[in-house]
């Protein structure tokens, strides 16, 4: 029997769609790209970093935006939420000192609390829509946190208009952020195709999906693109 080729909707922003597309194609699936969100820069004045002890990155986007705004490499130690964010930071010439074993804000906060000195000043560049968990957990432990909004993630109305016809052509929809989930369900019809399933990069994104639907959601144990695609292929493809 021929291996079935899944057709999956890739909802990542246009500038980030390629990595997921590549992994899907290498796994024998087809990527249907529909960037339901876009990234918009905010007006930012960076703080004086000489007194900073830690710089915390929670996404590739924060690394990219920070790098564009900051001329000098910080002397502060750097913490990243996961390996992809760390790899992006290192590609810009930063030295990464801390990556938690689990790739989410809660694990990052826990790792910082264990590693940083209590009096350390932590600078946290972020998206306007970032969950408050990281800052809340650090401040709850008495840590000094300065958060800086670098960008916002907003729905792309042009992509939303193209969504409905595509839903009949795909087997599933992949989400790598809650922002993409919200943009999808803003535009999706109430009567989704019967066998449509959802793929989620992690538990937070899965929770966002479940606020809208009780459809099947596939989430990998490890929160990476590769693990997400591998989990979906194992579950959905018959050899």
UniProtKB/TrEMBL annotation:
Catalyzed reactions: hydroxymethylbilane = uroporphyrinogen III + H2O
Domain of life: Bacteria
EC number: 4.2.1.75
Gene3D superfamilies linked: 3.40.50.10090
Function: Catalyzes cyclization of the linear tetrapyrrole, hydroxymethylbilane, to the macrocyclic uroporphyrinogen III.
Family: Belongs to the uroporphyrinogen-III synthase family.
GO biological process: protoporphyrinogen IX biosynthetic process; uroporphyrinogen III biosynthetic process
Pfam families the UniProt entry points to: HEM4 (PF02602)
Family matches, as PANTHER family: UROPORPHYRINOGEN-III SYNTHASE, CHLOROPLASTIC
Molecular function terms, GO-annotated: uroporphyrinogen-III synthase activity
Limits of the Tetrapyrrole biosynthesis uroporphyrinogen III synthase domain: 20-229
Protein known as: Uroporphyrinogen-III synthase
Keyword terms: Lyase, Porphyrin biosynthesis
Enzyme class: lyase
Organism: Alkalicoccus saliphilus
């Amino acid at each position: 029997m021929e291996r079935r080729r899944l057709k999956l909707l890739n909802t990542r922003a246009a500038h980030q769609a390629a990595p997921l597309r590549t992994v899907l194609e290498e796994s024998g699936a087809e990527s249907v790209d529909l960037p339901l969100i876009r990234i918009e820069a905010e007006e930012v004045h960076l703080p004086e970093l000489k007194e900073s002890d830690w710089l915390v990155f929670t996404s590739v986007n924060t690394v990219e935006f920070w790098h564009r705004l900051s001329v000098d490499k910080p002397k502060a130690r750097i913490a990243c939420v996961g390996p992809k964010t760390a790899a992006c930071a290192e590609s810009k010439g930063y030295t990464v000192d801390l990556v938690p074993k689990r790739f989410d804000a809660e694990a990052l906060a826990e790792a910082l609390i264990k590693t940083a000195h209590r009096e350390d000043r932590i600078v946290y560049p972020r998206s306007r829509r970032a969950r408050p968990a990281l800052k809340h957990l650090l401040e709850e432990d008495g840590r000094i946190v300065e958060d800086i909004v670098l960008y916002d993630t907003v729905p792309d109305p042009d992509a939303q208009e193209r969504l409905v016809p595509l839903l009949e052509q795909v087997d599933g929809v992949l989400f790598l952020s809650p922002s993409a989930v919200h943009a999808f369900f803003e535009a999706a019809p109430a009567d989704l195709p019967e066998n449509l399933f959802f793929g989620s990069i992690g538990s937070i994104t899965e929770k966002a999906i479940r606020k809208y639907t009780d459809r099947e959601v596939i989430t990998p144990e490890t929160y990476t693109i590769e693990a997400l695609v591998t989990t979906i292929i194992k579950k959905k493809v018959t050899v």
